[in-house]
Design goal:
Glucose Permease (Domain IIA), alpha+beta, single chain, about 375 residues, 4-stranded antiparallel sheet
Length: about 375
């Protein structure tokens, strides 16, 4: 019998058993080697566990990321920190400006708060050398005049005008083309002198206006008492007189101060200067001030007003808002009428000196 016939002669059951043995053997091997279906489920489970574990790590990763973001935020937080440091430096520097305190800057003036009568009379004793009281500095005269930037010395036409101090002539002529006052042809013929002396390093100018004749030239040096012109009524003058201004710091119409604090008082007379202020310390403008001799308290001698709050200026030394010169030496009463109330103060005027008074009124 051949081998093929012998192979075919085996019963079917033997073939079935053999095939099953082979299948079981293959299944066993696949389980051992991890290829069986059951093992694949475990592998998937492991795979899922493996993917889940990273997902936990991934969820943990945001937490460090969240902690890491503040770490990045810290630099911006630190960058403002230097700014406050700079801000702290600047306040520490603020005391430096506040050391002068702008108020102590007048403190040189407070130290200088003393007489500075640098100017002599612009009119000789042969003429009328007193300031006209009808139109003093900062007043409106009878109320119809513009605010006065100077003082008047009423004299006949042709009265000699004298240099009040030594200095240099910076303007000599008319103001038809160059404006030195409120408008052109305001002073008519005028002379402006820059003094040789300065106050706190600032120049002082003296203006002489409404002349009938100018007797000096620009650039000319003059001495105290030298004739520089003649009294007239040019410009807007309504009668013959000398208009005189003192300008501090700049040679312009907005820089005037009261000449009565610069012109030496007459013999046996002095100057009263002061402030009328509210309870808050603010200057009260254009308040009525009446002066009486102490020995005649019911007989008014002079009536003046405190300065307006525009156009004119307090003196750089005194910081006043009213002043009146050439008061007879002795005791005086100063009465202020404000909001239907009367305030009365006593003051002593000394010959050749300035007396200060502060009057506080209800707001």
């Amino acid at each position: 019998m051949s081998e093929q016939e012998e192979f075919r002669s085996y019963p079917k059951q033997v073939w079935f058993v053999g095939v099953m043995v082979l299948l079981l053997l293959g299944l066993f091997l696949s389980i051992v080697l991890g290829l069986a279906p059951g093992s694949s489920k475990k592998t998937l489970a492991r795979a899922r566990t493996a993917t889940f574990t990273p997902s936990l790590r991934a969820s943990n990763t945001p937490l460090p990321t969240a902690t890491f973001i503040p770490t990045k935020t810290l630099p911006p937080t630190e960058s403002p920190t230097p700014k406050p440091t700079a801000t702290k430096v600047s306040p520490s520097r603020t005391p430096t400006p506040s050391l002068p305190t702008a108020t102590p800057l007048p403190s040189p003036t407070t130290l200088l708060r003393q007489d500075h009568y640098w100017l002599e009379r612009p009119i000789s004793p042969e003429g009328h050398n007193r300031v006209a009281r009808f139109y003093p500095y900062a007043s409106r005269g009878d109320g119809s005049y513009p605010i006065h930037h100077g003082v008047e010395f009423v004299n006949p036409m042709g009265t000699p005008i004298l240099a009040t101090a030594s200095g240099t002539i910076v303007v000599a002529g008319d103001d038809l083309h160059q404006v030195y006052g409120a408008r052109d042809n305001f002073y008519g013929l005028l002379v402006i002198e820059e003094l040789d002396r300065r106050l706190d390093g600032n120049p002082i100018y003296v203006l002489y206006g409404h002349l009938s004749r100018v007797k000096v030239q620009v650039g000319q040096k003059v001495k105290t008492g030298e004739v520089i012109g003649l009294v007239g009524m040019s410009g807007v003058a309504e009668g013959p007189h000398l208009h005189m201004e003192v300008r501090y710091g700049k040679n312009d119409y907005a820089s005037t101060v009261n000449p009565e604090l610069w012109v030496r008082p007459l013999e046996g007379r002095g100057t009263l200067v002061g402030l009328v202020i509210s309870t808050e310390g603010e200057p009260i403008p254009e308040t009525k001030i009446v002066l009486y001799r102490a020995d005649a308290p019911d007989k008014p001698v002079w009536t003046i007003l405190s300065y307006p709050d525009r156009e004119v200026n307090p003196d750089p030394v005194w910081g006043e808002n009213f002043a009146i010169g050439d008061l007879q030496a002795g005791d005086w009463l100063v009465k202020v009428y404000h909001k239907q109330r009367l305030y009365s103060h006593k003051v002593t005027i000394s010959s050749g000196k300035t007396s200060w008074i502060t009057i506080q009124v209800a707001s």
